[in-house]
Write a structure and sequence with these properties.
Elements: E1 19-21, H1 24-30, E2 35-39, E3 42-47, E4 50-58, E5 61-63, H2 73-76, H3 86-96, E6 103-111, E7 114-121, E8 126-130, E9 134-142, E10 145-149, E11 153-156, E12 161-164, E13 170-174, E14 178-186
Antiparallel strand pairs: 1-5, 2-3, 3-4, 6-7, 7-14, 8-13, 9-12, 9-14, 10-11, 10-13
C-alpha cells in the first residue's frame, strides 16, 4: 500500500451495510478533522491538507446498530445566526447518538475550518491517544476529565478550559460523568 494510492479512495464509505466503526476516528471524521479511505480492508485517515498526517489502522467492526434520528447537517448548520441551548442539546443526545467507547457526541455547528461539538462521557470511559489537525479548545461543563499529553496530565473540572495546539497527542479519561464542549479550528 502506498500513499499515492490513497487519492482514488478519498471519501470512500467505511461502513458496510452490516458493520459500524467504533473509535475516536469516528469522531474525527464527523468533525471534519480527518478524512478517510479504505484500501485492502485497512482504513486510512489523513488530514484534509494532504497525506502528510497519514495514519493507518485496522477497521474495528461492530454489529450494525439502529440509526438514530438526527436533523440533516445542511438543516442543522443552516442560517447566519444560531442560538444553541446546551442543556437541551445534551438532553437530546441519547436519542440522537450511539454510545461509543462509553461516550456520545454530536456536532452542533460547522462553518469553514471551525467545528463545535458536545461530548457526554460515562464515568471511566476514555479516548486513547489521538492527534487533532487543528487547534482544540476543551471546555468541561460538568464532571471531571483527565487530559494527558506528552508534557503533562491535567484534571479539568467544571468551567475549566484547555487549549491544545495542532498535532499534540493526547488521551482523555472521564473520572466521573462528564460533559464537554469541544471547538476545533482546522489549520489551512
Amino acid at each position: 500500500m502506498t500513499r499515492s494510492s490513497f487519492p482514488a479512495a478519498v471519501g470512500s464509505p467505511v461502513n458496510s451495510s452490516n458493520q459500524r466503526r467504533c473509535c475516536f476516528r469516528c469522531v474525527a471524521v464527523e468533525l471534519g478533522i480527518v478524512r478517510e479511505a479504505v484500501l485492502d480492508g485497512i482504513i486510512a485517515w489523513y488530514s484534509p491538507q494532504g497525506p502528510s498526517g497519514l495514519c493507518l489502522k485496522q477497521e474495528i467492526a461492530m454489529p450494525n446498530l439502529p440509526a438514530k434520528p438526527r436533523i440533516p447537517p445542511r438543516d442543522r448548520f443552516a442560517g447566519s445566526e444560531r442560538v444553541i441551548n446546551l442543556d437541551q442539546a445534551f438532553a437530546e443526545l441519547p436519542a440522537e447518538s450511539i454510545v461509543r467507547q462509553g461516550h456520545m457526541q454530536k456536532t452542533l455547528h460547522r462553518s469553514g475550518p471551525t467545528t463545535t461539538a458536545i461530548f457526554s462521557f460515562d464515568a471511566g470511559s476514555a479516548l486513547n491517544q489521538h492527534v487533532l489537525q487543528g487547534e482544540a479548545v476543551l471546555h468541561v461543563l460538568e464532571g471531571l476529565l483527565r487530559v494527558t499529553t506528552d508534557a503533562s496530565t491535567n484534571e479539568l473540572g467544571p468551567n475549566d478550559l484547555m487549549m491544545l495546539e495542532p498535532g499534540v497527542p493526547h488521551d482523555l479519561k472521564a473520572l466521573q460523568l462528564t460533559k464537554v464542549l469541544l471547538t476545533v479550528v482546522l489549520q489551512g
